[in-house]
Amino acid sequence: MLKVGVLGAGHLGKIHLRLLNESTKYELIGFYDADEINGKNVAAEFGYTYFDNINQLIKSVDVVDIVTPTLSHYKCAKKAMEQGKHVFLEKPITNTLEEANELLLLEKKYRVKGQVGHVERFNPAFKAVKESIKDPMFIETHRLAEFNPRGTDVPVVLDLMIHDIDAILSVVSSDVKQINASGVSVISKSPDIANARLEFENGCVANLTASRISLKNMRKSRFFQKDAYISVDFLEKKVEVVKMKDAPETIGDFDMVLQNAEGEKKQIYFENPEIFENNAILDELETFADAINNDTVPVVTLEQGTAALKVALAIIESF
Hints:
Order of helices and strands: EHEHEHEHEHEHEHEEEEEEEEHH
Low-confidence stretches: none
Largest sheet: 9 strands, mixed
CATH class of the largest domain: Alpha Beta
């Protein structure tokens, strides 16, 4: 079992602590929180070992799970990597692109592994259809959330939209060519609602909308590609796959057939991929353990986390 320590015991940090404590692939050594009162309260309530010295915790583990505010990601990861520790970083990877690029260099220099917590990659609905998403040419995403003061220290692009940016980059094998975006600050000092249009070199277009001032929660993505439409509901963990193929010569009574202007007939059919329920956060943490133990590439690499951050910052820049 890998010895692991958690940095940060806020809302998400406590979830990580509970899951790591339950995991069969990790031995939870303890945690550090900059707020000593919060740290002692969490230790008293849940029984986890609280370290009041971050360096002592890092020295005691093999893996450092960083669930601190984004502004401190780089400093914490750098400190861990320089001691030869593997790092799991919550999204976004860092606050700036310069910091992310520096972590890429440190990862190679100290021969450690890193993974970024883009948890939607482990959403069972997305996992069920990811291999079916091939060369999408139009993508539309909506990620809407009710207002919550937690997370408003950063623009909604880094808070919410970056989930969809990473998912899109994982299925579009092309570089972003152009970005057009707009954002509006309604309650916070940074944009609370944003829309971005990404144009890729291969012609694919992605239209992303994110809001943290919605009256209801929604996390949906739609992928359109040749002869297929794939819808993913990340919130409800449901998928819809509609495909087309050449219509048979003899059309059955219940066959759905469309005919285009050139007279070509296409039959519409539905696929129902099996969705395997999981705990996405536990999955991302345990696949990182597998990558370390088997010396394989993590599911969400630091390079991929950096790529998502680069697009997110370019969107913010274009406001």
